[in-house]
Every structure is written in structure tokens, then in C-alpha cells.
């Protein structure tokens, strides 16, 4: 389950900058079937088979603003090689990349959707992009934070 | 010089035979050249056909740097499409050219801002790089646009593109290869 523990925005020059911290719990199983532990756990159905070299996972935030109908910002990514532990249980992660908006669209934006997706990199063949099921909506507050407590 | 004629035939007949032989060889040579031209034309047609079908000006590219490791290494081959209606989305692997530079770059899209009218600007970064690609763009350029895109990576084959890299780095190898191929096609006789 991904949840936002704390979020606030800060303006930098002309654009909004958002800060998000999150937890990721994902289980990319080695078989065709997966069971749900409880209704809040994000389960990814996936097969790490002989033709999968790695997965490139990324957490992206998607939202709309006055300036732009669609915005997507990748906040965090990770390369998972075949053989790595397929269970992710990351807590209190800070985003790897700065969450800048193109303009000031983060302030008061109630609907930022965070989704976990991944790019399957085969040993040879097609490169599909898959979006995990389950996503979280995050609202940003209406005011800017002035303290630098990040 | 006249070869000693066989039997009663005089020098004239021997010349005829010799002339015949030379004529035959010339025809054979023309045939071989036409064969070669046909092979080259077919290859070009297949390439042009790919360009039309995929919508990309360069549907097959070779990875030149290690900036997308461990997914792609130098020498890997990428197959691209560039359909006009395909939107550019975060996480996709795009091949783009910076304005004014010839070399296509293969990196991943990490930021997308799209307006209602379809205008898109996006930012890219190599998986293996610490920072995004702003340093690679033109002076003052902060975003890429659809027009900079050569195509989106849809499929890939490892190692196969190494031949192109070797030919680039060692031009003598390229000429030797072309000479061998040319000689083979011209001299090969269909029995």
C-alpha cells in the first residue's frame, strides 16, 4: 500500500515544487497466481521468466493543471534484475527526482495520482510498459511551506 | 596471334570461336551486375518500406553508449515506431536527436507536460546517468518536443548492432567487407 506520510509544496522561482514521501509495498511474484494478503496490499501479477532480463520500475505522479491538460512526473525509479528479491517493502522514501511542475499547478491541486509502472526489458524481443494495479491519490495543500524541513 | 587451327579450319574459324567466347563472358558479366543491382534495390526497398510502416525516419538504430545500462549495452539493436497518434508518456524509451546534432540518443522519458491542444514537452534521462538530459540539449533548451523524436523503442536484440560499430570505428574493415561481398556477388555463377 502506498500512502503519503507528509507532503507540502514550496515555490522555487516560478514553478511549484512538491515534496512527497511514500511507502511502497509490492510483490512481484514468480508465478501466474498471486494471493491477496489483505485488501490494502498492492499485488502485481508478473512472471520473471527466461526472457526477462530486468524490470525498470518507476513511480509516476499524474495530474492536470490550468497550464497543462496532462502532466506526468517520475518521482522515483528502480532497476530490478532477474534474481533480485521480487518483494518491495520500502518505507518513508523520498522522491529521487525533484517534483517540479511546469508552472504553479501544484498548489491546491487535489488530485495527484501516483502509480507504479514498469518496463519489461527482455533478453531479446518486445519492450512492453505495464502499469501496476492500484494507485493512490494525493492532494496538495493550498498554501506554500516556507520552512526548509526537507 | 593465331592458335594452330584444328583440322582443316583456317585461322579465321579460330578467331570466330575466340570472339564467341569473349562475347559470352561479357553477357555473363552484365547478368551478374544486374543481379547485384537487383539485390541492392530490394534491400533499399525493404528499408524504405520499414520507414513507411513504422513512421520513423530510422526504424532500426544501434545503441552507441552505455547510458541505458543494464538494459541496453553498446552494440544492441533497437526497433522503433513513431506513430503520430502515439502519445509520449513517462517511462517510455525514446530515441531523439538534439537540434543541430546528427547522433540519435536513446533515453527514457521522465517528465511530460501536455497541453489540451496536443502540444507536448518532455524531459529525458538515461537510466545509467545521475542527472537528466538538460546538459545534452541545445543551449537554452529545457525540453524536447515531438519533432525531436526519431521513434519509440518497441523491441530489441542484443549484440547484433556491434557490426555497425566495428565498421564505423575501423573503416578498413568496412571496405574489406564491401569488397568481399561485391566480389562474391559478381563472380558467383548460377549453374
Automatic annotation (TrEMBL), chain A:
Subcellular location: Endoplasmic reticulum membrane
Predominant localisation class: endoplasmic reticulum
Membrane topology, as annotated: Single-pass type II membrane protein
PANTHER family: MICROSOMAL SIGNAL PEPTIDASE 23 KD SUBUNIT SPC22/23 (PTHR12804), SIGNAL PEPTIDASE COMPLEX SUBUNIT 3 (PTHR12804:SF0)
Record flagged with keyword Ribosomal protein: no
Organism: Chloropsis hardwickii
Pfam families: SPC22
Top-rank lineage group of the source organism: Eukaryota
Record lineage: Eukaryota, Metazoa, Chordata, Craniata, Vertebrata
Keywords, sorted A to Z: Endoplasmic reticulum, Membrane, Signal-anchor, Transmembrane, Transmembrane helix
Function summary: Essential component of the signal peptidase complex (SPC) which catalyzes the cleavage of N-terminal signal sequences from nascent proteins as they are translocated into the lumen of the endoplasmic reticulum. Essential for the SPC catalytic activity, possibly by stabilizing and positioning the active center of the complex close to the lumenal surface.
Name by which UniProt lists this protein: Signal peptidase complex subunit 3
Cellular component annotations (GO), alphabetically ordered: signal peptidase complex
Family: Belongs to the SPCS3 family.
GO process annotations (BP): protein targeting to ER; signal peptide processing
From TrEMBL, chain B:
Keyword Zinc included in the entry's annotation: no
Biological process per Gene Ontology, one example term: signal peptide processing
Protein name per the record: Signal peptidase complex catalytic subunit SEC11
Localization, UniProt: Endoplasmic reticulum membrane
Major location (coarse): endoplasmic reticulum
GO cellular component: signal peptidase complex
Keyword Hydrolase: yes
Gene this protein is translated from: Sec11c
Domain Peptidase S24/S26A/S26B/S26C: 51-136
First-tier enzyme category under EC: hydrolase
